[in-house]
Design brief:
The chain is an alpha+beta fold. The protein has eight helices and eleven strands. A hairpin with a 5-residue loop joins strand 1 and strand 2.
Length: about 325
């Protein structure tokens, strides 16, 4: 949780609330000299600023204080179709996303699910397209609007083709955790992440050419996460990383199981990166990067220099230098 929060944090509430890091109001940590420090608005606000998105290297975080926001109900879930319908579904979802309300945050995923326990048989018969996400109601008075806005998204998509499965429903906030149908236990995987400036028709074609039906992709899931809204708004109370200047986040990954080797996954990640390079902003969100060996860059040189000055004050002997994310320090 700490890595997610201090690494940005891109949630299904984010188009309304912004990055999860912006909700952090205090961080408690033990520094290299053994001191306990609480950083908040009244005590070392510069350290609090640097901790939120600065890339680590400050100490061992022991507690985080987070500001809450009201959620009465959530319309959440996922709708699945055969990947045969990928192009019209992706285009229709993209067109809706351009005008989507801020209370809605969604993603489109291409999935190659294995026939294992827990995976519905209809989803393991071949590649599928999934649109999932959440439309939340802050109060009971907002529930009708949340339902309508979810229907504005889903009705046109359902009209393109009959879904294989549809789990969207009105529920409480805990239901958002089940929207992705992720496995309950950790799974090893290899993946990659990019931030995309746009999703035009040529981007759609490039995406499907390396990830759609017939592409031979070994990735179990390839996701386009809708950004914009509050994600793009600079938060004056946020940290050094307080906004994301991109239209979509791409994440793709797969486990090296059975005939799929780490080399297969590495190679296809490189293929996808090359195909999407014309729309790659060159920036990333730390909490979405799949490993220290992956390309990542989330701060400009001026921000890196400012964070380095805070590190030099908090850890002058660089005992936590090995914890710093690649690209987050000019000191290497």
């Amino acid at each position: 949780m700490v890595g997610y929060l201090l690494g940005g944090g891109v949630s299904f509430y984010g188009r309304h609330t912004g990055l999860a890091a912006n909700s952090v109001r205090a961080v408690e940590l033990v520094t290299a000299d053994g001191a306990w420090v609480r950083a908040d608005a009244g005590n070392d606000p510069e350290l609090l600023w640097a901790l939120r998105g600065g890339g680590g290297g400050f100490g061992v975080v022991t507690a985080v204080e987070v500001e809450l926001f009201p959620v009465a109900k959530v319309v959440t879930g996922g709708t699945y179709w055969s990947a045969t319908h990928a192009r019209p579904l992706l285009t229709a979802w993209r067109d809706w996303a351009a005008q989507a309300p801020r209370r809605a945050t969604t993603s489109l995923r291409v999935m190659n699910l294995p026939p294992v326990p827990g995976v519905p048989p209809e989803l393991a018969a071949g590649p599928v397209i999934c649109v999932d996400g959440a439309v939340f109601a802050a109060s009971p008075d907002d529930v009708a609007d949340a339902r309508r806005q979810a229907e504005d998204l889903l009705a046109p998509l359902r009209g393109i083709a009959e879904p294989l499965m549809d789990t969207w429903a009105l529920t409480d906030a805990a239901g958002v955790l089940d929207a992705h149908m992720d496995p309950a236990d950790p799974v090893p995987f290899i993946g990659d992440h990019l931030l995309l400036a746009e999703l035009g028709d040529d981007t759609v074609e490039a995406f499907l050419s390396v990830l759609g039906e017939g592409s031979g992709s070994p990735l179990v899931v390839a996701t386009l996460r809708q950004l914009g809204g509050a994600f793009a708004d600079a938060d004056p109370r946020g940290g050094v990383l307080n906004q994301v200047d991109a239209a979509y986040a791409y994440m793709g990954s797969g486990p090296p199981f059975g005939p799929v080797t780490p080399a297969d996954l590495e190679a296809h990640c490189a293929t996808v990166r090359a195909a999407l390079e014309p729309w790659n902003t060159g920036r990333t969100v730390p909490s979405l990067v799949e490993g220290a060996d992956r390309p990542q860059c989330h701060l400009d040189p001026e921000a890196v220099a400012a964070v380095d000055r805070v590190r030099a004050r908090i850890d002058p002997h660089r005992r936590f230098a090995g914890d710093i994310a690649p690209g987050a320090s000019a000191a290497g």
